[in-house]
Amino acid sequence: MIKGNVWDSMQQPLADVSVQLLPDNKWYRTDKDGYFEFKSLYEGTYQITVQHVGFGSKNLSIPLERYDSTLCVVLTKENKTIEQVNVNRKVTEVDNLIQAENAAMPVHVITRREIELMGSRRLDEVMKEQTGVAIVNDISGGSRAVGVQIQGFSSNYVMVLIDGQPMLGRNNGNFDLSRISVTNIERIEIIKGASSCLYGSDALGGAINIITRQGVITPQVQASLLYGSLHVVDATIEGETPLANQRGSVVLSGNYYQTDGFNTDKQYLTSGSTTLAPYENISLQGRLRYKTSKNGTLGLTARYGGRNSTMINAWSNDLTLEDGQRDNDFNLGASYDHQLRPGLRTMSRYYYTRFQTTLQAQWLQQAALAGSEEFGQHIHRLEQQLLYTPLPSLKLTAGLGGSMEIMDNRDLGNTHSLNTAFVYAQTEWKTTDRILTMLGVRYDHTNTYNGRLSPSVGLTYQLGSNLLLKAGAGAGFKAPDYKMRYQIFFNPAANYLVVGNDRLQEVLETLDSQGELSYKNSYMVDRLANNLQAEKSWSNNLGITWNPEKKWQTQLSFFYHRIHNQINTESIGSGTSISQIYTYRNSPKVVNKGFEISADYHVQTNVELSIGYQYLIVKDLSVLDSIRSGRPPYDYYVNPTTGQYRKSKPSDYWGIQDRSKHMLNVKALYTYRPWQMNVNLRANIRGKYPVQETNMNQFIDDNDKFVPAHTLLNLTLEKTLMKNKLTLRVVADNLLNFTNRNMLGQPGRVILGGISYRWVKP
Questions:
Q1: Which of 169-173, 251-255, 384-388, 665-669 has the lowest mean pLDDT?
Q2: Same domain, residue pair 723 and 602
Q3: Residue 22 neighbours by CB distance under 10 Å
Q4: Cβ 287 vs Cβ 248: under 8 Å
Q5: Cα(27)–Cα(441) distance, rounded to whole angstroms?
Q6: Smaller CB count within 10 Å for the chain: N or C?
Q7: How many angstroms separate the CA atoms of 612 and 625, rounded?
Q8: Domain-located, residue 9
Q9: Residue 315: inside a domain
């Protein structure tokens, strides 16, 4: 046991002080006598962080052997400085010198303990419970593409990284978050807004950086199993150990996940059909760290992910489609961290990744091939980073590097590789005790598109001991990828065709000559074909953090993102046997704007409440301009009920597809200590959002197809036994059993039961 008391400099006990124990990530709030305790601990070295509003914080390293450790911690009262605001989030990484908190944009961190209390299995399940984040299925990626949306930016604009290295394998720009298991995750960092200055062009709308397990103290193994509805099996085993007399450490983990899939479209698909495919997924990952010298650390990471899925879509006894897909994902990274001298640190990094997917669909009764696709890509990436601190108040982060990306599919055009070079720098200058300024710039150049400069600026101002202001602005850009320009993708299960912009005219002419084109939107085709441009953006964020009481924290942020030439999918026709034909189009001027507000309140030491709300407007300003001026094709509003036409008004325009104006998250955590039991109840409420334009007036209005407003209610029960070695869990997702045929990735009610056992070497 580690126990103790917290006092002020006058030897008076301090109540409601936050005490954090790492690496177990346990928390305790002191009672009226300033007392805290952590029971059922194993031998080893622990880190304790003690924090209290209006006081300086303390970081302690506590060796725990055969007997209890008793501490007396004294906190000194002082003005809270900027450095102390996020002290519990500052973790020195061994494989990346770029810290998420260095971004000018807002940053949110999800801890390992939060993930455990959700009972989540895949990354998409974790993300959908975060304020300002939505999970959607990208139409161009098919039902298997479970993507993310941050402040109105779709998955195309959000970079997903593991330990600071970008992940490959996007279905037409959409990264499938359900590919990633949350096993072995230490924390998740979410940057909202343009992050191109730190991470490059794919982070035009934000970044999700997944940090895997670290902080090894003593050899231990943990095994867990979840089983329940849809025959979901989620089995994980993790092991970690120090080596070479604590000079190094190894962390290994493996996860097996399977599900029978589900059908959200029972009205049109017969029994046995699924809208989300049954699949098996295997994830293996490992980290090795070794201190080669007093000032040098070598890091190695490896990850493999494999998924195999087969789904059946049957519209009638004579019309049954079998759709199979296999994905393989391999990542390997190496880094060398070297402290040259005090204040000067360098890191060399190499990264290799390989992604391959194979898709094949056939009509079973006719024994005919409906469609097939094979796509592969791999990338080599080198980067040199530098961290220089010439003064305590001044820090410089800089880097340069390059990457070579190669596509397997030779049908994507004459150029089969994408070579990129980049250089970036960012300064953090603490001008006074209350003001921290950030300036950054990055330049990216590719062999296919022109180079682009991405600047950013940030300001953090401590207005008072309980009031913090943060403002940031940054540029971003993103060039169309090869698939958007050249690929022809047919989804036989959903019966739609997605055509790369540069091949649009060719494909439509071929369909027309074969008598397979029933409708073509000539106005849109003439505007779009061979005319896809790179995207540019400018993001602005203003945030306020207010702590009116020790138990209460409130955050409010306003955001305004201006995007030029945003790329979206557009329906431009239909075929005699194909329901919809899509391509990509630029929206000349798009605005994502709104605000987020969140509040956390500790009612007692065993009750925590939190709430988060986002208001979002996403509109194409060129559509609004055309409506105001009466320019076709947006000049008339069609009432589908009466068939009557009238002049369009700006208020008729809803905005861009898949965006809700209102999203609300409510969470309540109750801990009953005598039973060592946690009850975690969460409600995710999302307002209605449009999925398709149906009345042919070329813009989304209230009469088009929408997913209705809905609530997803989730519950997790957790009980520990045998001195925290054994954990029992019951996970209940979507208790209200909400489904919709246009939410392909949202199952009905799912109930799972699980057990976890942790063994630690005595």
A1: 169-173
A2: yes
A3: 16
A4: no
A5: 38
A6: C
A7: 33
A8: yes
A9: yes
Copy the structure tokens of residue 16: 């409601």
| Domain CATH number, residue 456 | 2.40.170.20
Cβ atoms of 117 and 129 closer than 8 Å = no
CB 738 within 8 Å of CB 746: yes
Amino acid at 24: D
Whether residue 104 contacts residue 458, with contact meaning beta carbons closer than 8 Å, is answered with: yes
Q: Dihedral, CA atoms, 729, 121, 115, 712, nearest 10 degrees? A: -90
Residue 268 neighbours by CB under 8 Å, 6+ apart: 315, 741
Peptide bond into 63 cis (omega under 30): no
The alpha carbon of 480 is separated from its chain's Cα centroid by a whole number of angstroms, namely: 21
Assess whether 68 and 198 both reside in one domain. no
Which residues, listed in sequence order, are joined to residue 607 by a DSSP beta bridge?
A: 604, 670
C-alpha span between 254 and 241 (Å, rounded): 16
Residue 745: pLDDT over 90: no
- In terms of domains, do 185 and 60 share one? no
Tokens standing for 622?
């060129």
SS3 506: helix
Task: Work out the mean pLDDT of the chain and round it to a whole number.
Answer: 84
Residue 430 covered by a domain: yes
Residue carrying structure tokens 């149906």 = 694
For residue 461, give the nearest of 433, 488, 485 by alpha carbon: 433
Q: Does residue 382 have a pLDDT over 90?
A: yes
Confirm whether 741 is domain-assigned.
yes
Q: Are residues 243 and 389 in the same domain?
A: yes
Query: What local confidence, expressed as pLDDT, does residue 561 receive?
Result: 93
**How big is the chain, counted in residues?**
762
Q: b/e for 224-238, b at 16 or more Cβ within 10 A?
A: bbbebbbebbbbbeb
Write out 84-150 in H/E/C secondary structure. Answer: HHCHHHCCCCCCCCCCHHHCCCCEEEEEHHHHHHHCCCEHHHHHCCCCCEEEEECCCCCCCCEEEEE
**Residue where a domain stops, chosen among 52, 78, 104:** 78
Residue at token pair 């509040």: 599
- CB distance 761 to 218 below 8 Å: yes
Q: In terms of pLDDT, which residue wins out, 434 or 29?
A: 434
Cβ atoms < 10 Å from Cβ of 420? 20
Query: Using CA atoms, how far apart are residues 743 and 135, in angstroms rounded to an integer?
Result: 10
**pLDDT one-digit tens code per residue, 677-720:** 999 999 999 999 998 888 778 889 988 889 999 999 999 999 99
Domain that holds residue 26: 1-78
- pLDDT higher than threshold 60 for residue 454: yes
> Cα 139 to chain center, whole Å?
19
Q: Same domain, yes or no, for 386 and 506?
A: yes
Q: What average pLDDT does this structure show over 361-388? A: 82
Joined tokens for residue 620: 């194409």
71 with 182, same domain: the answer is no
Domain count, the chain: 2
Share of the chain residues as helix, strand and coil, in percent rounded to the nearest 5: 10, 60, 30
CATH of the domain at 45: 2.60.40.1120
Considering 78, 96, 121, which residue would you say is the last residue of a domain? 78
